[in-house]
Amino acid sequence: GRIPGFCAAPVGRMGCRCCWALWLLLLLTATCARLLFCWYSGAWPESGAWTSGPARQEACPRPLALALQQHAHFGGLFNLSIPVLLWDGLLTPELWDRLSHVKAPYGWHGVPREAITSTLSLLNGSESAELLAESHEPRGPWPCIRCAVVGNGGILKGSGQGRLIDAHDYVFRLNGAVIKGFEDDVGTKTSFYGFTVNTMKNSLINYRDLGFTSVPQGQGMRYIFIPSNTRDYVMLRSAILGVPVPEGPDKGDLPQAYFGPDVHAGKFKLLHPNFILYLTEKFLNSSVLNTYAQDIYMPSTGALVLLTALHTCDQVSAYGFITKNYWKFSNHYFERRKEPLKFYINHDLRLEATLWRDLHKAGIVQLYQH
Ligand SMILES: *[C@@H]1O[C@H](CO)[C@@H](O)[C@H](O)[C@H]1NC(C)=O
Ligand SMILES: *[C@@H]1O[C@H](CO)[C@@H](O)[C@H](O)[C@H]1NC(C)=O
Ligand SMILES: *[C@@H]1O[C@H](CO)[C@@H](O)[C@H](O)[C@H]1NC(C)=O
Predict the structure, then answer these.
(1) Cα(237) to centroid of ligand 2, in Å?
(2) Nearest Cα residue to 273 out of 52, 144, 107
(3) Model confidence over 149-189: pLDDT tens digits?
(4) Which domains does the chain have, with CATH numbers?
(5) Is the CB of 124 inside a 6 Å radius of any atom of ligand 2?
(6) Segment 32-47, tens digit of pLDDT
(7) How far, in Å, is the centroid of ligand 1 from the Cα of 82?
(8) Residue span of the signal peptide, if any (predicted)?
(9) Which one, 58, 204, 261, 330, has least CB within 10 Å?
(10) Measured torsion, CA atoms of residues 298, 303, 305, 309, in degrees rounded to the nearest 10
């Protein structure tokens, strides 16, 4: 039931069916290497099929772009051409005009101009425009970049998903991503760490006793700054320069203490404010935006990181994200005793839970749930 090199999953088990006629047609017409040779048919396997993970060297069994084409609603929402990252090359007078009237994280209203321009001038190479390394060698003629995004939800405790998580090409983590002691459940690999300076420092304070004593570090790791505030631009600039933060609430902080000793611009990525606005409007347009809390509402860090992966990778699995049965699990996987999930007015986790469920049903993300 398997055509070597083409269909990654044994027929049936993963709902993937190879079709030679389609394949030949695509061979003739496809100019885009991401076009696909397995006909996607249906939703993800329900729980029970989770023993089969992504294996390297296999082609994309469930490409996101094809699932989007086949889904009227989400196909119309996703814009895979929108720039995910902001860098110097995108800074035009028009962008300045537009963003300077919009408050953070969607724009620059209230953020000193100097903080923005001095930071962006350091993000001036092509590596600042792309999340994934250009050196990523496509395996075989049709690349499939598989990403795992690991949230910190209690559903991961005792899950044994670590090996499958680490088998992805890239692993995204965020905020209080405790690894030591939880390797079997959450894996050990980290390619990207997403955060705002506020959420990173709160995690280091609040979860220190539970094992979050340092942000993931390592050669080749990349940091995704979410620009929720002036302090994010100032920390990013200091991180690239490798100097102590000169001003603001983080004054005196040494960025190397967070991000490790090796410093260069390519290590730090900045989410585009306009991308955050697009994500909020299209995917997480919460009814909170009609209330007094509209000024503090924004998608959660986890939501921004997962949606970033969905606009970057060919296939995305989400682990440790909120599910409909969240009440069965502790707030985080690293808590010793079960603690209920806390809902704050600045995020809309119920709306996020609905979004992940619907994206899973549509075959666009593979959401770990049980
Ligand atoms: C998608 O984003 C690009 C770049 O911002 C834009 O030019 C294009 O109009 C967008 N497409 C749709 C359908 O909105
Ligand atoms: C980027 O900016 C740095 C510092 O201003 C400069 O040394 C470097 O040559 C610039 N690189 C490019 C590709 O323009
Ligand atoms: C967001 O939802 C509100 C209703 O709550 C609606 O009026 C508005 O048009 C929506 N915005 C977008 C961008 O879809």
Answers:
(1) 14
(2) 107
(3) 999 999 999 999 999 999 999 999 999 999 999 999 999 99
(4) 64-367 (3.90.1480.20)
(5) yes
(6) 333 333 333 334 444 3
(7) 6
(8) 1-33
(9) 261
(10) -130
